[in-house]
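Following up on my earlier message about adenosine-5'-triphosphate. Here are the inputs again, as you asked, copied directly from the submission form:
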Amino acid sequence: MPSDDPIEIVKLRKEYGGFVAVDDLDLSVKKNSFTGFLGPNGAGKSTTLKILTHLINATSGEAYINGIDVTRDPKAALTGVGTVVETPEFYPYLTPRETLRYVGQIIGMSSEAIDSETERILEKVKMTEWEDKRLGTFSKGMRQRIAIGQALMNNPRIIILDEPTSGLDPRGQAEMREILKNLRNDSKNLTVIMSSHVLHEVSDLCDRIALINHGKMILHDDMSIIGTTDGKKRMIVKVEGTPNEDMISKVLQLNNVVSAERFGNDIDVMIKGDNNVRVKFFNELSALGIGVYGVNEEGTLETTYLKLIKESR
Ligand code: ATP
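Thanks, got it. Here's what our run produced:
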């Protein structure tokens, strides 16, 4: 039985001959979350996303979108879902505007809706300047922006992306990240699952992570657990001036502070709780007149990733 989560994968399995690419995988994507789908080359990410978008069939198991079984009723399941899973092929002689119109027609939008959506999306994917140039002349980064644009037609509430910044140069990657960040900031009512190998991009954009290896889930949680041990996180807080005993004792009295000690010119703080707790902590420091100009956090997505992948070999 599917849950209320917009995307739900249950015991999904894909075998190629005798090789198991996706191994009885369970994954629930929470509503309005931005989930980074991680894993080494060959982990089974693309295979999972292809099954989810009905590009290939699973060997067994189920994939639901909004509670609708993708295999049984792909059309209904994928209505209102924007996808960029395989590098989309566009007609090189069409312009971005014509391409989006064409996509709008295929998905059955009215011509008024197509007009207004086309304007909105060309702006969102920063293609207004190029709207009447032919796609055949575009760089990979520009074509990828059109790919995201077509996925945004008709204001989808769910977006599925397979490595959206793959193969782009640093500027193209930064542009794509900015587009995705704006998307996240502009709509609180949007669920995104996005595979990626770029860990800082995932840290930056996503509030959830799902990490797989050999087709199996090895971590699925809030991003805020990264670098935590038993819900505690260690931070080196860089403060104005030199921390003295008075400052340390004030910090120690704050809620959720487990320990605090001087660390050179900084304060080494262990704090228990999620991101909200940490926001409160910094507000309280500011209320105490303790100016913070920087923070180093122990444990990054990269260290967590490498440790878990090593353990799951
Ligand atoms: P990457 O990060 O490199 O894109 P991935 O996590 O997306 O990797 P998949 O592309 O899903 O991994 O591939 C999972 C495994 O399934 C790999 O070992 C791959 O070689 C294998 N595989 C994928 N497609 C096929 C296919 N059509 N036939 C046989 N094996 C396949």
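One observation from looking it over: DSSP finds ten helices and 15 strands in the chain. Hope that helps, and feel free to reply on this thread.
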